[in-house]
Amino acid sequence: MAVVLTTSNFDEEVYEAGMPVLVDFYADWCGPCKAMGPVVEELAGEFAGKAKVGKVNVDENQELAMRYNVMSIPTFLVLKGKEVIAKAVGTQDKGSLAKALESGLK
User: Fold this and answer.
1) Sheet-wide strand order for 3-5
2) For the chain, does the N or the C end have fewer beta carbons within 10 angstroms?
3) Element (H or E) spanning 92, and its range?
4) Which residues neighbour 52 within 8 Å (Cβ) at sequence distance 6 or greater?
5) Contacts of residue 70, Cβ cutoff 8 Å, sequence gap at least 6
6) Is 33 annotated in the active site?
7) Which is the catalytic residue, given 3, 19, 30, 85?
8) pLDDT single digits (tens) 26-66
9) Nearest one of 3, 30, 7 to 17, comparing CA atoms
10) Has residue 2 got a pLDDT over 90?
11) How would you classify the pairing of strands 21-26 and 83-89?
């Protein structure tokens, strides 16, 4: 299951994770974000133990959205520590997100 990321737990859950993290910036009112929800959850299950998957509600965590210049949602970032190693904006297929996450495992 994807981890709920907030301003208060982001540093610990992402920067100190010790593994790559796929971060899904979304909003509850966003149709494409809702469509991506099941894909994000599938990836969380498939990468369990190798990588982490988290979700940031941009309405509740505007500071994080600003930190990463999120202008459109959904936006997906793969972070390894504090480094953004992949970014995708808009609806994505599962394979492309998995490939981005796998790039952080190397």
Assistant:
1) 3-5, 52-57, 21-26, 75-80, 83-89
2) C
3) none
4) 3, 13, 14, 17, 19, 20, 21, 22, 44
5) 25, 58, 64
6) yes
7) 30
8) 999 999 999 999 999 999 999 999 999 999 999 999 999 99
9) 3
10) yes
11) unpaired
Name the residue with tokens 């469509």: 35
Q: Is the pTM of this model over 0.90?
A: yes
What residue type is assigned to position 40 of the chain?
V
**Catalytic residue list contains 46:** no
What are the structure tokens assigned to 39, written together?
């894909």
What's the confidence (pLDDT) of residue 27? Answer: 98
Task: Quote the tokens at residue 48.
Answer: 């369990």
Which tokens in the block code for residue 68?
Answer: 């990463």
Which of 33, 36, 39, 43 does the annotation list as catalytic? 33
Pairing of strands 75-80, 21-26: antiparallel
> How many residues in the chain?
106
Say whether pLDDT at 106 is over 90: no
Which two structure tokens, joined as six digits, stand for 81?
A: 């520590």
